[in-house]
Design a protein that fits this description.
The chain is mainly alpha-helical. It contains two helices and no strands. The mean pLDDT is about 85.
Length: about 100
Amino acid sequence: MAKPSVHPAGNHSAAWIFQSWASFFLSLFATGVGLFYLPLDNWAKGYMSVSVLFTVSSTISVSKTARDMHEADKLTSLVDEARVEKLLSEHHPLS
């Protein structure tokens, strides 16, 4: 039976992790600059800023939930596979 990977970063390289975080912060910075120079009243800029922050936080929540559901499915599959292997090892067809 294959042993699951316990490496915290999974199969991602350090360059990929850096690129992911750099693009995340660059996009937030660019959005902030865009909102700052937008020709609107401050209340409209504030509303749009809060909307962007809500979008980012809900995206993080959805991605974490999807990851957790996937990991739970993997664990359930491993437990089921172990049960089947135990049943098969205890079964003697000639007895």
